[in-house]
Write a structure and sequence with these properties.
With 265 residues, this protein is α+β, with helices and mostly antiparallel strands. The chain has 7 helices and 14 strands. It has 2 domains: 133 residues, Fructose-1,6-Bisphosphatase, Chain A, domain 1; 111 residues, D-Maltodextrin-Binding Protein, domain 2 (3-Layer(aba) Sandwich), CATH 3.40.190.
């Protein structure tokens, strides 16, 4: 498997989907409810996913694909599985907020091997191959910086759709973070926050029962940029297809991790 070729294809597909989203987001967007958690789906999600599926399955017909809207496609049981998030930040698009990205990941044996995140609004793309580092659109390497945070860290929070307002653990954790940090961002676009961590725009991400579809691509980019990812109790965390069922984690520069884990304890 030529991962550099796969990266090129994934970047080109994500950027093509991004152009489609950018063109469509400026007009009337068809929005409808998705499930009972308050989530929504738009016509743009479906159009972007169709483009991505066509490109990936045409190039790799023997691979499996897990897509946000279509579910499992391709060859069931393949050692190679693509994950497609055609519009991460659908709720933002639905209210006219220009904060959304396209995410594509490729897993081998359940482990992330390739990750791509594209931001249509800024026309920037971030990608990583396992063991090969993370790159920005220009091909420059990404490195997570470590900065002093005298007023507390700038954090991003992400949670899964199944997490309700009645979840006492989530409420307690959020309260603790709000009291000890400079600010807690919740962007409704987890892949965008992973890119922000890899670029050094934020100090850490705390995830609580995060969704699978947008985890491997972003987490791989952050890891390859030098971030460390741990379970909330400080144990190991794997962003694999067969990883922890609740997918709760903290991600940050390794030097910042002890203080964050102390905060979460």
């Amino acid at each position: 498997m030529d991962l550099d070729r796969a990266r090129t294809l994934a970047v080109e597909a994500a950027e093509a989907a991004g152009r489609l989203l950018l063109d469509g987001a400026g007009g009337a967007v068809g929005v409808r409810a998705k499930g009972g958690s308050g989530d929504v789906v738009t016509d743009l999600d479906l159009a972007s996913e169709k483009l991505l599926l066509e490109r990936i399955l045409t190039a790799y017909p023997s691979h499996a694909v897990i897509a946000e809207e279509s579910g499992l496609l391709g060859v069931t049981g393949s050692e190679w599985t693509w994950l497609i998030d055609p519009l991460d930040g659908t709720n933002n698009v639905a209210i006219g907020l220009p904060a959304y990205v396209v995410g594509v990941a490729l897993c081998h044996g359940g482990q992330p091997a390739l990750g791509v995140v594209h931001d249509p609004v800024t026309a920037r793309t971030w990608s990583a191959v396992r063991g090969g580092g993370a790159l920005d659109s220009s091909g420059a390497p990404l490195r997570v910086p470590h900065r002093p945070a005298p007023h507390g860290p700038l954090l991003a929070w992400t949670q899964g759709y199944a997490v309700t307002r009645q979840d006492a653990s989530a409420r307690a954790l959020r309260t603790r973070l709000e009291l000890a940090s400079r600010r807690v961002l919740q962007l409704w676009a987890p892949l965008l926050t992973w890119a922000m961590l890899a670029r050094g725009d934020i100090d850490a991400i705390v995830g609580y029962r995060a969704e699978l579809i947008d985890l491997p691509a972003g987490a791989l980019i952050a890891r390859e940029a030098g971030a460390e990812i741990r379970a909330l109790d400080g144990g190991p965390f794997e962003e694999s297809l067969d990883g922890a069922a609740d997918r709760s984690f903290v991600a940050a520069h390794p030097k910042a991790m002890p203080g964050l884990l102390s905060l979460l304890a």
